[in-house]
Amino acid sequence: MSEPPLQLMLVDEDPTFRLGLRVWLEQLPGFQIAAEAANAAEAMGMIRKCDRTQANAFADPTLRSQRPLNLVIVDLGLGASETKTEPVSSSGLQLCKSIKTEFPKLAVLVLSARDEPVLAAAARQVGADGYGTRSMPVRELAQLIRTVARGVSSPSMESKPQSPPPIPDPLTAMRLSMRLTGLKQIEQQLAKTAAELRRPRLSWLEQQVLAGKMRELKAARWFVRHLWTTRNYPDASWLKKNIRPRGRTSPTTGLPAPRPNSVGAAAAITVPEPATLSLRSGDVQNMVFEAVFAKLQTDLENTTSEPLEIDILRLDKKRELLFIILRRFEDLLDDLRQSAPQPGQLDDKSPQVLRDLWVATIEEFFGRYYTVPLNGVEQELVAVLYQEKDIVEREILKQIPLVPELLAHWLFQDAMIVDGNSYIATTPEALAHSEKLLENLLIQMGNAVMQPLLNRLADVEVIKKGLYSRRLISTRDIERFRNDLSWRYRWHRLVNEPTDIFESQYRLYTLGPRGIMLTPVYAPRRPELEQLSGFPWAMTLLLETRDALSPRVRALIALVGSSVVYVLTEVIGRGIGLVGRGILQGIGSAWQDTRRTRQRQTPPTFNEWE
Question: In what helix (H) or strand (E) does residue 21 lie, and over which residues does it extend?
Answer without folding.
Answer: helix 15-26
